[in-house]
What does this fold into?
Amino acid sequence: MARSIDQDLARFKEIVRGKVRQQLRKYISNGEMIGRKGRELVSIPVPNIDIPHFRHGPKGSGGAGQGDGEIGQPIGKGDGDEDGPGKAGDQPGGHVREVEVTLDELADMLGKELELPNIIPKGKDTLSADKDKYNSIHHSGPESLRHFKRTYKNALRRMIASQDYNPLKPVIIPTREDQLYRGSKSVSVPRANAAIIYMMDVSGSMTDDQKEIVRTESFWIDTWLQSQYDGIHTRYIIHDAAAREVDEDTFYHTRESGGTRISSAYEVAWKIISTEYPVADWNIYCFQFSDGDNWGEDNKACVRMLSEDLIPHCNLFCYGQVESPYGSGDYLRELRKIGNKFENLVLSEIPNKDAIYNSIKTFLGKGK
It folds into this structure.
């Protein structure tokens, strides 16, 4: 019975995950769930679904097995009068169930929904990490590592050899000498690592709504890239007329009142890449978000730095232009002039939250 209940619960969880997959586009554009993220799990609200269960009526209300009855006789009373309107209820309505989904499951759903190709890391896998591999057998060890199949074979051979085995009553009882255990050995394995650099304009023309779009899209980008690499380093750069590196919380909650000079962010990004992330060992991703405003004389410097420094050293350089009521949007037009020269330069327009879905597909759809 317990096994049957476990199977039913597992099936229910799979149904719930199916519901999440069906509505993934809605969840992608919904920033609420990001606040429900733990270290390994994300809680997602799924409405109108509940675990099947028995509901008992009040005592003495009649029912199956209580006294004599005739065929067709109703069991118990209904909630209302058949001939009149229904009465006001006193029971709670439908609830929203929070379902925990691992980040790996979420990344798998994202990849299938957006048809994202798996990333093939570039460069050398020279960075390594120690990993335990269970590739040997020992006669002693903890019970959790007992090799059941080999232990069983040892016991079977011994009982056949000693003529204690009865094929009509096939009972196999291993002794201490029969038991074998898996043994581990620490080996060095290559790791593919990635560095993600986020850049965002925090000048006065970028409102809280635009920052929430950036925050939501960045969550899904991180989720996908973490499923593709063993190790991820994430760095954050904010800028108005000047740029600086900050932590994640500051990145999403800072607003300045100055002008805009995008090249200042590129200078900080290039310093980080050139000093800390050798291109031969790291897969580098840059994601820049802006409303397209930039000091006019700065555009030439930006294009030069992108063409000579940043783009040649990145797997992807992605620019997302978030529509703002105060931004001009001119910078995207400048980048389109060099878009055909670089396969790894990806441009996206994000007018609202509903556009996040297509923007992520645009950024990650090349599998770089």
